[in-house]
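Example record

Each entry pairs one chain with its bound ligand, adenosine-5'-triphosphate.
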Amino acid sequence: MLNVENVTMKFGGLSAVSQLTLDIGKNEVVGLIGPNGAGKTTVFNMLTGIYTPTEGEIKYNDKVINGIKPHKISSMGIARTFQNIRLFSSLTVGDNVRISHTNKTDYNLAEALLRLPRFFKAEAALDEKVHSLLALFNLYEKREEKARNLSYGEQRRLEIVRALATDPKLLLLDEPAAGMNPAETHDLMNLIGRLRDEFDVSILLIEHDMKLVMGICDRINVLNFGKKIASGNPYEIRNNEEVIKAYLGEKGGEGTAKNA
Ligand SMILES: Nc1ncnc2c1ncn2[C@@H]1O[C@H](COP(=O)(O)OP(=O)(O)OP(=O)(O)O)[C@@H](O)[C@H]1O
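Structure tokens for the complex follow.
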């Protein structure tokens, strides 16, 4: 589904990402981990069209997407959440999700203004979709609440719902468990597993909570100073000497990594 081939991103003299190669298959959950400043978010910014790589190619379903505008990439089926939550804080929970779906509504302006049947049918279908997504993420009861009144963990879940409302095939999650308590993180782990199965999405996950990463990822890629230093399954990564030294620490895979 996604092939990142020898991709480099330079900012002036700094190579934030160097010669990165990374693949994601259909329905895979792939981890992208590494110390602060390793280049993980820069990878997301390249995949979503915010940055155009300095070198290399990013292919999505065999089509090169380097340099394509973010909104176009979103409509191709790549969605993301942000490390710093970016909700519309004064809108309701429900409207935050509806907004993400607006480019997919199945009626035109005239049909909306004249309140034609297609408008009502599409709106009812949208309501149903928004409500079932919110229910899955345990946010249905909060649908009329302003986003800013949600707890931190709820806001993180709402970000994921909003990304899902665009019907992605590839979902990029940037530290979804940041600020969550252990119980919320555990629930999130189950939810991510359900997303893969029920929404037929592939997931690329940036996360410092190693319990979550090791518990959910099929494969993990490790970045350090912009370079990939390891890739493999959770067992291989947990036991990789270079990864332990650069990131995991001696208790690799227990809780939060030492350099997070
Ligand atoms: N727009 C930019 N201009 C200049 N330097 C940048 C820019 N974006 C990122 N960088 C630099 O690139 C490097 C990688 O940053 P990035 O945010 O991708 O790391 P990260 O692995 O996501 O870190 P964290 O875990 O802290 O989120 C850092 O040195 C950062 O300062």
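The first helix runs from residue 40 to 47.
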